[in-house]
Design brief:
This protein is an alpha/beta fold and 332 residues long. The protein has helices at 4-24, 28-41, 50-61, 70-85, 98-115, 131-139, 154-167, 202-205, 219-229, 251-261, 313-331, and strands at residues 119-124, 144-150, 171-174, 187-193, 198-199, 217-218, 231-242, 262-269, 282-289, 301-304. The chain folds into two domains: 4-85, DNA polymerase, domain 1, CATH 1.10.150; 98-331, Rossmann fold (3-Layer(aba) Sandwich), CATH 3.40.50.150. It has an eight-stranded mixed β-sheet with strand order 3-2-1-4-7-9-8-10. Residues 96-319 form the DNA methylase adenine-specific domain.
Length: 332
């Protein structure tokens, strides 16, 4: 059951969002951005009538943000965002489930411990509402993280912006197509729940090795290439990928590209119960950008995440990855 603090914040965000929807003629997600900005600024920034203003003020006064943890704020914001996403017109923009964010955070911690890093730069080239990056920032709060996010959808980017503000998390956000040239220096870590589909802008697709000779290129292929381009040598990439990524006539080209530019570290099959149907099932794919003089792992880490009904599902994977690291370190 959700903690009362999370429930109370959800209630305040939801109720004030509904009021601003009606009075300002906004969509739910647009109104959520407005109410979150009000909470952050400590005042009602919109022109609303006196009745609506009093209702909103009373709701705001019922919570104290400084008494909530960043994770409690994130969870409440996630729930209210999920409510708004039901009617959103971009079906391919689905929020990354919490369990995946927690799994990536745990795996990332193990890789960082093995690499003896305490500070790192992080990029999500398809940040959406920012929930995945926010989960990592909260789970790895003992690390100094310089985070960057890119999102073409301005409403989703505003949600990421106000969420980061409410949680007092630092992140630089860019409102653009991530497959256009990015003015972001290479980072230590890339995380992304890859957008899947065809990329319509041939003028930019033509600049990629993974472009297709005929028809439109796969956006998920181009995101992998762009991500590797913006990763430091030796940096890590965590991708949530469709099960069918390595199927089809274009798959050999992707294999060859990855073989040239990266070492595959691991592939974790996510439980089917996480997804609406088997066609939508996904895996977690871990890469390391090649660095001169380094050899690939003797054995790629392969695992199947137990069902989410198993409370120890994430810990089971982390126990296996620690054993994998021990074996790999012995093989060096």
């Amino acid at each position: 059951m959700l903690g009362s603090k999370v429930e109370n914040l959800f209630h305040v965000l939801d109720e004030t969002t509904e009021i601003l929807m009606q009075t300002c003629h906004l969509t739910y997600l647009e109104a959520l951005v407005e109410t979150a900005e009000n909470l952050f600024q400590g005042e009602i920034l919109q022109q609303v009538d006196d009745v609506a203003k009093k209702k909103i003020e009373k709701l705001y006064q019922s919570i104290k943000l400084d008494m909530l943890s960043s994770e409690e704020i994130r969870r409440a914001f996630q729930l209210v965002t999920l409510k708004g996403m039901r009617d959103y017109v971009q079906p391919h923009h689905q929020m990354t489930p919490d369990s995946i964010g927690i799994l990536i955070s745990g795996l990332l911690r193990e890789f960082l411990i093995n690499g003896k890093l305490k500070t790192f730069t992080l990029l999500d080239p398809a940040i959406g509402t920012g929930n995945l990056v926010a989960t990592i920032q909260n789970q790895l709060s003992d690390y100094a993280i310089e985070a960057y996010g890119v999102e073409v959808d301005d409403v989703l980017l505003k949600l990421a912006y106000v969420q980061a503000n409410l949680q007092a998390q630092s992140i630089q956000l860019y409102n653009q197509d991530a497959l256009e040239p990015l003015f972001i220096d290479p980072v230590d870590i890339v995380v992304s729940d890859l957008p899947v589909g065809y990329y319509p802008r041939k003028e930019f697709a033509s600049q990629y090795e993974l472009n297709r000779e005929e028809g439109h290129a796969f956006s998920h292929y181009l995101f992998i290439e762009q991500s590797l381009k913006h990763t430091k040598p030796g940096g890590l990439l965590f991708f949530v990928i469709p099960n069918h990524l390595f199927e089809g006539e274009d798959a050999p080209k992707l294999h060859a590209f990855l073989k040239e530019h990266a070492f595959i570290q691991g592939l974790i099959q996510l439980p089917l119960s996480m997804f609406k149907n088997e066609r939508n099932a996904k895996n977690l794919f871990i890469l390391k950008k090649k660095i001169e003089g380094e050899t690939p792992p003797k054995k790629v880490f392969m695992a199947q995440m137990p069902k989410l009904t198993n409370k120890n599902s994430v810990q089971d994977i982390l126990t296996q990855i620690r054993a994998w690291f021990r074996q790999e370190n012995r093989n060096k």
